[in-house]
Amino acid sequence: MGAFDYPDWETFMKTSFAARGEFPLVAPETPSFMRQPVAKTAADLEGADVVIIGAPYVAAEDGKYAGVPMEDWIEAPKRVRQQSARYPGGYIQDFDLDLFEHIRMVDYGDADIPREIMFNQTPENILKAQAAVEAKCNDAIKAGAVPVVIGQNSPCGSFAIAKACAENTDGMVGCVSLDTHWDAGHLDYLTGDPRIAGAASWKHKMYEFLDNMHPRNLVEIGERGMLENKDIIRRYLREGSRFISSWELRTSLGIEGVVGELDRAWDGTKGVYAHFDMDVMGGAGPAPGDILGELVEPIAMTDYECIRIAHEIGRRGLTGFSFICIPPGSAAVYRVIVYIIVYMAAGLAMRKIGKGA
Fold first, then answer.
1. What is the spatial distance between Cα 300 and Cα 278, in angstroms, rounded to a whole number?
2. How confident is residue 3, by pLDDT bands cut at 50, 70 and 90?
3. 9-353: which CATH number, 3.40.50.620, 3.40.30.10, 1.25.10.10, 3.40.800.10?
4. DSSP β-ladder status, 91-92 and 213-221
5. pTM for the whole thing?
6. CB under 8 Å to 10, separation ≥6 — which residues?
7. Using an 8 Å Cβ cutoff, are 315 and 337 in contact?
8. pLDDT, tens only, 92-136
9. Structure confidence by residue, pLDDT tens digits, 44-60
10. Bridge-partner residues for 318, per DSSP?
11. CA distance 242 to 219
């Protein structure tokens, strides 16, 4: 069980559409997202609508996460950017819209997470890594932009962004979350430390620690099957969360019904945090679920469903966006992440210019 044989940089540049043009680099072998300008400092974010941030962090245990080698996970921020460089511009033919005529997007590089942390995951080191992501998100939100964090594990790819959204919003903050798992346990399994919003506990910690977020403004989409604790799910339902399982999506709601339910996250809130845990797609997208190791479950959401929901989130406006558990190693899956970001930004553009989809 493992990732695809993703090409090295030299092979990528020989075989990819990216070789047809030039692009700025945010790091060695790492083009800026969609060839957009690189921001080095907070001052460079002025006037931006969308700020791309990498969070190369994996909650590794013995060098693996969910049975898949850490190295296959941690390259996601770099590889998503590489795949984005295939596209020469922001013209989206589906909407006859040139994104970059209306949206200023910049790449703010990766949060300062030393790779050594992967091999010494003490609570203190994890909190430092989380703070590094928060700092970049705070800069983006203060500049009036939406931070989009390409991560792989919690808290750096989830709670850190929620915290920045909550602390920079004067009012309640809603949440739209796509996932295979609720991630709502009470304690981080890796450290056992109650301060850590870990892979299986970050959502619980989000509501425990952030006073202006409440489950009544949570739209949770995609979970299914037999892994979850019934008491946890029933408590969220009692507190007003809208849970849409993959089963409900496919049997009664359909994608149009799901889109209609998104509004609950905006009802009475001043901001919205969107979080996509991409194991939700495990096997129904362009790559087999086996590359996810223990994280894959049947009745997965499709790439179109994820992209469409992201677009609709953009049309409604949002405060921050994040990814974790991007299926490792498949170039096609990394392109799905590019589409999710770009089609979300297209929704922002339509919102700005008053154009319907």
1. 10
2. low
3. 3.40.800.10
4. unpaired
5. 0.97
6. none
7. no
8. 999 999 999 999 999 999 999 998 998 999 999 999 999 999 999
9. 999 999 999 999 999 98
10. none
11. 5
| pLDDT for the residue 310 | 99
On the question of pLDDT at 1 being above 60, the answer is no
Tokens of 310: 């992201």
How many CA within 13 A on the CB side of residue 153? Answer: 27
Report the chain's mean pLDDT, rounded to a whole number: 96
Amino acid identity of residue 79, one-letter, is R
Backbone φ and ψ of 320, nearest 5°: -160, 160
Peptide bond into 155 cis (omega under 30): yes
Question: Over 90: is that where the pLDDT of 20 sits?
Answer: no
**If you write DSSP's letter for every residue of 305-357 in order, what string do you get?**
HHHHHHHHHHHH--SEEEEE-PPTT-HHHHHHHHHHHHHHHHHHHHHHHT---
Q: What is the pLDDT of residues 331-341, one digit of tens each?
A: 999 999 999 99
Q: Which residue type does 35 have?
A: R
Which residues on adjacent β-strands are paired with residue 220? 177, 243
Q: 73 with 168: CB under 8 angstroms?
A: no
At 192, which amino acid appears? G
Give the domain ranges of the chain.
9-353
Tokens at 166, concatenated: 């909550």
Contacts of 114 (CB under 8 A, 6+ apart): none
Percent of the chain exceeding pLDDT 90 equals 92
β-strand 271-277 against 242-244: which pairing, if any?
unpaired
Q: Are 179 and 223 in contact (CB under 8 A)?
A: yes
d(CA 248, CA 256): 12
The token pair at 120 is 């010494």
Strand partners, 211: none
| pLDDT exceeds cutoff 70 at 2 | no
Strand partners, 68: 65
Contact 327, 279 (CB under 8 A): yes
